[in-house]
User: What shape does this take?
Amino acid sequence: MEHIVIIGNGISGVAAARHIRKLSDKRITIISAETDHFFSRTALMYIYMGHMKYEHTKPYEDWFWKKNRIELKNAFVQTVDHQNNQLVFADGSTMSYDKLILAVGSKPNKFGWPGQDLDGVQGLYAKQDVDLMEQYAPNNKVCKRAVIVGGGLIGIEMAEMFHSRNIPVTFLVREESFWNGVLPDGESGMINREIERNHIDLRLSTNLVEILADENGKARAVTTDKGDTIECDIVGLTPGVSPNIDFLKESGIELGRGIKVNRHLETNIPNIYAIGDCAEQHEPIGNRRPIEAVWYTGRMMGETVAQTICGNRLEYKPGHWFNSAKFFDIEYQTYGWVFSTRACPDCDANFHWIHKDDDKCITVAFNKDTKEFVGINTFGIRMRHEIFDRWLTEKRDVNYVMEHLKDANFDPEFYSQYEKEIVSQFNAENGTNIQVKKKSWKRIFSNA
Amino acid sequence: MKVIKNIGLVIFLAGLSIFTAVVFVGTFKLEQSTFDEYVKNNNIKSELFIDAINKDVVGKEFNGMFALSPVIAQALETANAQHIKNKEWGKRIFSKPRDMAAALGKPAGSGFITNNKGIMWLLTFGLGILGALMFILPNVILLGRKGIKNNGIYLESATNRGWIAWLVFIFLVSFYLVLYFAPQYAVNWTYLVDPISKTLSGNPAGHWFVYGFMYCTVMTVMAVRMYIKYRHNMYQVVRTTSVLFFQIVFAFLIPELMGRLQGSYNKGYDFKNAFPLDYDFFFSWNLKELIDGGGLGLFILVWGIVLTLVIVPVMVYFFGKRWYCSWVCGCGGLAETLGDPYRQHSSKSLFSWKVERWLIHAVLVFAILMTAMTLYGFFAETRTVLGIKVQAVMNTYSLLIGAVFAGVIGTGFYPIFGNRVWCRFGCPLAAYLGFVQRFKSRFRITTNGGQCISCGNCSTYCEQGIDVRAYAQKGENIIRSSCVGCGVCSAVCPRGVLKLENGPEAGRINPTQVLLGNDVDLMDLVNNK
Assistant: This one.
């Protein structure tokens, strides 16, 4: 029986294993040194915040793996010996495979800051990182202040985590506004204010210079390029992640920043595939980045590679871009492409609406000339994925989107609705006279 | 703010302690005239019992019901035993000893509690309400900005099955045991609410009035907590208001006020309590009362039947069973208010789901068979059906399902097994509604394409133990007979993935194996296989 070995028990590796099992009777082994069972990495923050326990983050009960004949091995892979189709583990033992799927994920970036390896300096990526936070920042008596470096999604998550335990937080962001490499200025500004409303000491345009140690080799303060020294008991470093591929350097597998793969997720070595955060496309797909460290792309690559391995060679074809996040109490969803003011100052027209409470806003991007709708960012208002996916496929123009905006609303029942307000502002700015249509189940389900 | 909270806690505990201590104290002295009247009104023919009470109880002072109750019980049991021995069937007394003790204890009360009902109410209910509100209201500020704030739930003893949870468990279970199996010890509590009962129905309070009043009080106070916790979520605000309204008006005020009716039917009736949750609706004694109860009685009879056979299923078709279970029902109302801090304790394992399906449907079958027997017995005018005593079946159901399952386990186990144990594993009405919801309804929880990140908040906070994530991460809508539509999965989802809605039946169930986001041909490939 063909033996499929998957390194990594994250979402991509597990998605691959599940779909291979659905499609075939092959022997499947998943290897991980992090945890015995698959858990949801995105839920790590909720463990520290006390919303859930570790066991709640496991999407499948522990009996699931045996029942589906997916073997689990807790071990650290030292090297991949593709000439002999064999893995060598840290303890010297080996395992042979017929096909190998690398789903090894990422590791947090470190940019050579002095003091970056001190005790009490950490990222937020693995289960072990949450254990460390529990150790160094269990409460605001032990941890008088936390400093977070890096203005992205993990940085703001860490800020929310410390905040949930009433630990004062200083948040150093290199950019002049939070996440403004991705978000248009209006949205980025609103998130700045949301951060400050939660009493986070947000310092924009500020870089970390050095992390200072106490006599025990534990972080005690950081210095910034503004000349400040900030006393703290824990430092969160969250300047992004990069593929976790150091152990493959000598393997003969072609590497760039990640593991180079073609559209079929095949590496340069036959029978070795790479999926998820660690895979790097030779050519970017559409506007997507060559390396996508996103939950659902990992899942989709797993689904795709399972087809290929089971005899139906498929290209990885992600559909329209979408994503979501949450910034403190503001939910964020995006469908299609809305570029930040910084990344693309004039490629598309952006329509921006913000609610007077400063906790809801949307930005709709459309082509200036053809009026084709190209994307939407929505904050504090939930929207329907299927509807936007369809509108993008159908290349609807922005007027159509505005007219049918109620079809896309996904907020719970009885919530206030803002479509009228949004569209009247759109009309005023664009000289149109669009009337918002009532929500129609018929339209919503027309393609379902 | 923290200080106010802590003072509130102390005041609440003081109120609770006095309330508990009240059970053990008080002076009881049964007057001759009171007893004579009782004997006359209740047509008691056992001279043995009358003599024993006259000799051992009347005119004597007892310290607390724990002193009085055994004497009365003893007198009753001895008298009955003698009558049975002598085959004096007409003299037997059919009251249970505990009910007799409660009935004679109530008018026998004297002393501080009975003379100062208002003050005692303030020292128990008053302090409890005040303290609880002082504990809850500062959350407006302490919880931070509005939004989901489940911070620390698994770090605190009270909500993480720690020692506080176990104490609450012991208190709740004891309370229900007294209520169902030792009401004579609740006599002192009835004095506290006598003035309220007299204002409403004109009658002195019994232990069920204490329970009803307390139920409404607890729900109201804990609804304040819900309003604060979910103040960003209009669905929760509206739903909480609805469930509170139906409890106070339909389950409490209307039945109490019906006691004032002068007509031939003046028993309280809860117009929203549908059979088979209202399991004794078709019991022969109830049918007789309704049929003999003039226009109102007949109206209730027809209403009860229409409610179960027409209104309930039609409403479930349009709105899902949530219209009843989490918008109207009293059991649901308590679960959604008092029980909300414990909702995360429902087990999500596949094993629990299997147990649930067997158990709840077994109770439904039990309820239906029992009702069939009582109806047959009623129309055929017989007390045994297929050689089984109908009364014995009814008693078994009342004890096992009505008291132990719905009360002691259903509510007492909140802090350990979550707030919907009864609704999930036992309620026959929920089982009936569930069939309609599963097979013929417009209600579903829509999953928003491929946005799910499998974090598990939805499953964790599902009070009905549904593994919501298992559906959401596959892009499937959630259509489960047990879902009561509380809306909390949608509320706690950090990515806007879940929405409760009523839409066309077509497309309600959407089996998918590959989620939205993949290019269309992979979805077609897998889904159309």
User: Anything to note?
Assistant: The first strand of chain A starts at residue 3 and ends at 7. Chain A has three domains: 3-107+242-309, 121-239, 322-444. The domain at 121-239 of chain A is CATH 3.50.50.60 (FAD/NAD(P)-binding domain).
